[in-house]
Amino acid sequence: MTGTLDMEDSLSVSQEGSSSFADEHSMDADTIDYDGLGNDSSHGTNNHNATSSRRTHFDVEDNDKKVKKDKKGDKPMLANGKKISSTFRWKLFVIFLMFVNTSIVVIATSVYLDNDAGREFERAFNNAAMTVADGVHHEMQGVTDSLQVLGETITSYCQDTNTQWPYVTLPNFEQRVTSIRKSSVLNIMGFLPLIDTEERTSWEGYSAENQIWIQDSYNALLAARLAELAAQEASFSEEPTTTDINDNTLDDNTSNNVTNRSAGTEYSISPEIVVSTTGQYNLDPTEGPFAPLWQLSPPPPPSKAAVINTDLMSSDSFYLLFQAFLRGQAPSEFAISHVVPMSLYSASSTNDAVDAAEHDVTNPQSSNETTDFAASPQSFLFHPIHTSYIQHHEDPIQAFAMGILPWEDFFSDLLPDDISGIVCVLRNPCDAQAHSFLLQGRNATFLGRGDLHDTQYEASKHQPILTETVSYGVVYTEEDQRHSSRQVSPCHYTIDIYPSAEFSSEIHSKHAVMFTLSIAGVFIGTGLIFLAYVYLIGNRQNKVMAIAMSTSAIVSSLFPSTVRDRILQEAQAEVKVRMSDKSKGRAAALRSSRRNSLKQIQEKRKEKRSKPNADLFPETTVLFADIVGFTAWSSVREPTQVFELLETIYHSFDEIARRRKVFKVETIGDCYVAATGLPEPCKEHAVNMCRFARDCLYVMEILTKKLEVKLGPDTGELSMRFGLHSGAVTAGVLRGERSRFQLFGDTVNTAARMESNGKREKIHISEQTAEQLIKSGKEDWFEAREDKIIAKGKGELQTYWLHNKKVAAPMSEISDGEDSSVDIDYDWLDLPTELFDSNRSKMCLGTNEIRQCLSEQNQRLADWNCNQLAMLLSNLVAHRKIVLEHNFANGTSNQEYEESYMRNAHVGVGDSGSILKEAGNTVDMPLYDAKAFVEIDDMPVNLNERVQQQLQDYVSIICSMYIDHPFHSYQHASHCTMNIIKLLSNLAASPNHTSFAHDESSGRPCATRDEEQGRFLYEKTFGISADPMTHFALAFAILIHDADHPGVPNSTLVRENGRLSRIFEKRSIAEQNSFQCAWDLLMDPGFEELREAIYASNEEYHRFRQIVVNAVVATDLFDEELNVARQQRWDEAFPKLNQKIPLPESSLGDIRDMADRKATVVLELMVQASDVAHTMQHWHVYQKWNQRLFHEQLKAHKAGRLEEDPCDYWYQGELDFFDTTVIPLAKKLRSSGAFEVCFDEYLACARQNRTEWQRRGQEIVSEMEKTFEAIAMGALSSRMDLLDDETTLHDDDTTDDPYKRV
Q: Compositional bias of type Polar residues: which residue ranges (predicted)?
């Protein structure tokens, strides 16, 4: 049945399972994990039910511990109990049977195939042995044919030229013999004339005179080699390859060297016939005949030329062969010697001969080396050469054709590639020698002397006989020492062919193992299919169970236990009806539908529909909590930051609610709604809710201060206001597409009005809640509010403030010892660990004293600014590292980077004076580097501790430079820094930049998406988005732009003609002073490592300084000359649409210059927008900073430094500022094309703020003036008290209905 469940069945099972799991009265509390909520039995049934209503999830990982009902016996049993265990045992039994059957079949098949493998082995070896035998005879036939052709060639030459024996030298010997030699496996061929004793002297003279054949042979070899080289070079030019042709061919210099030097080389052949005097058969070395080596192919190198004229007749290895031919005792025209351990010289190919010649010509000192030994066994073959073609007993032998046979080459290429492991043992009966070879496909390997085959395969031996050739041994007695009495006996070489273990394993692996594995694979595959089927069925069952459990968990978290039980019971009943209808079948359903009219069906549905799931709870306390200042705060934050704040705060509130037995109803935006006294009645509902509110207020204060380090300015100023009211509420599930548990009634509305009429950091309670506290003996917890509030539909109401003392252990104080079991230790709050990193406050280099002088808020802002700059600086260092690695990988060296890394601490030190002459210069943006763009995220760079510490010190000192003005303060600089970072993120995160189409129709490889995206952004933002140096420089400039600001306009500083006015030539005095103070501090020797991280070359230093200068000077919005120059740069970089632009006649350089000018203008606009960002943000953000600037200038006026009273011109001045500066600035940034989204919002906010200011500005100016007078008279002790004022701080969302407000 499980395998046929459809989606409807799954839902039904999940709902049914949820209902059974959710039945608290039939559950064992120890078997269910409710996230630790139900283990406190001291609070009784009510607390247990209240706890169960806030259960968030079941432990779905351990299904075996869940409990459900048995349908028949109505007894608790494990979900994977007897039935599932029985199924599991049946599965194991089936698997066991399959294993036994597979084993039996595999063993039987293996035995049968092993027997058959023996027969197959014999057949395979017989075929392989016959192949080897046929190959041996074929190769030997080729060898004998080659010797016969050589002999006939020499005989033909002698007959044609009437040359007398033995004085025969075959012209063009190398050309004639090379083709003959290559047709066989012989590596050297030649002939040996027979020299009688009386002809010896004349032969020695003849050989000395006619040794020029050696030079001619080498010239022929070299010509062939050069032709081969030319052909190879031609093929390489047509098909380029990375193979070095010099590995197998001679280059031109080497060829010329060999040609020129070998032409004049004297080949020192033996001047006389060299006769061996150590032989045991030839007793008289002076007697002939002699058989000296004469013409050879390939010819010997100069170092081995002495081999010519060596008499082989006197060698024991060949004496008996020659005697058999000379006496007429040879049964064959071909004879083969014993296996000899040496060769004449190493010349197995033409290349080897040429290489040997080159070596001897270029290294004459090595020409006296001894004869080298052969790497493998070889034998000499001889064929007699007669005077004429017609051979008879009277035709004497005049010479012998000779060839050297390497046995390893002889046994090669006898087998196909797929046959290996054949052992051949070469035997010579004359001397009882044996040599073993291993044949592996076409390769043959010499194993060693002796019979080395595996003796277990002795019975499988095959033995072909080489009948084409014979070897000779001596037959005589030791007493008979006379030359004429020695008799020779012919011997035929034999080859014993054996299989090996390798050959046997291949035969078995190809047959028996293959079939056995095939049979086993079939059974194993069948078993795997069965297991896969079992797994899929089990997986489906687990999914159904998981759905049921998750459904129960979701219902438990959304609804109270009583409501949850009703919902699950209704779902169970509906499932039963569906299952019964389904069991009737389709035909029955059709018949039933025909019988019942539509009206009857509708009536039945109405009867089945249950009543609404709702209840009246007469004794409850409802809480509304709202974050004060959240709307303005969130308007200048990224969405992720907004959600991070809400998740952190509300997660902490949820933990407090869980421990305080408070039921969380919902969160609506930044409004938190909770209730006590439901779903289970509770007499202390008002007391519990007051404790909950005070805990939340305390935690809120901690979190906002800690989060300010991470989320930026103004976070620490956020707070809560609470509204509580006690009374009856109607609560239940409002059914629909998205059912929710909701509260209704006058109590809810009154609680919302308590919150909206409250104040920050205050818990506002109604008179009814105060009465409940008095009943509980908590009359000292609250005090009456001085003024009465007017609530919509309620009239005047007397309300109260709940005392909210800030103590280290608030819960113990609030409970007054009455309920110590619920005291809370705030260490359990799951807060981000980075918020409590104490290392952020550690300072060095003597800046501890400076940091201690900072206010608590400025310390948090300094930490936040340090974090932002550190992040940008890390990207800058990583980008630089990638670019350097890329340059080195391309083979380019950047000397300036390498040298400046060691010397950049001194770059720029001493730059001072007016900076206006530097302002406005074009910033050179770097070229796009695709590698850096793609790899920047994969190369995190952690700044070293020295750099981090110096950055922290620098930011703290900059903070101390700011004077505590209302507007030009460190708080405003941090606000500007936050806005410039937001602009940079919007610059690189436009929605149009996130989708790119690939050209799949083209066969050419296209760029990756990341590279394409990077190039698009680079061109769209004129290079700003791809330059981390620009990002860091902008944030750095914004942070320092108001340092040491005197608190009065530049016009006042010029009029006063003070020290700053004289130094900076009466222009942009405050801005230049801020820059110079911050720059001189950066150039201090104590910040050397920080400077090395910021810029690593002169080019980077000048770019960094240029960007900072332009940015700081750009904040002077009222200098007429600067504004004229800025407008001119804007018109040049971004001409009007209707203005015709002449096309550039040149180069890419002009396009780059235009892009750099646009980037420079956009950077200035971004800085200006960040400086006045409050005018383009939420109305309350604008009002906050507008009021501070007004107070700052009014203070200067009262002190006599400002002639005009701001109260007289402030209203109209703000309107003019919007019209001439703010709105045009937003339009320019939108028109630049670098920003596609955010400046639409900025422009809209600027226009809305102007409209609101035009409507209410005069009234607001009057209120700001009264507030300033109150501060001056001491009525408001601090600016924070000013922020507490309801008229300035409350959001617009002050409607009575919290749902409408959200």
A: 11-21, 39-53
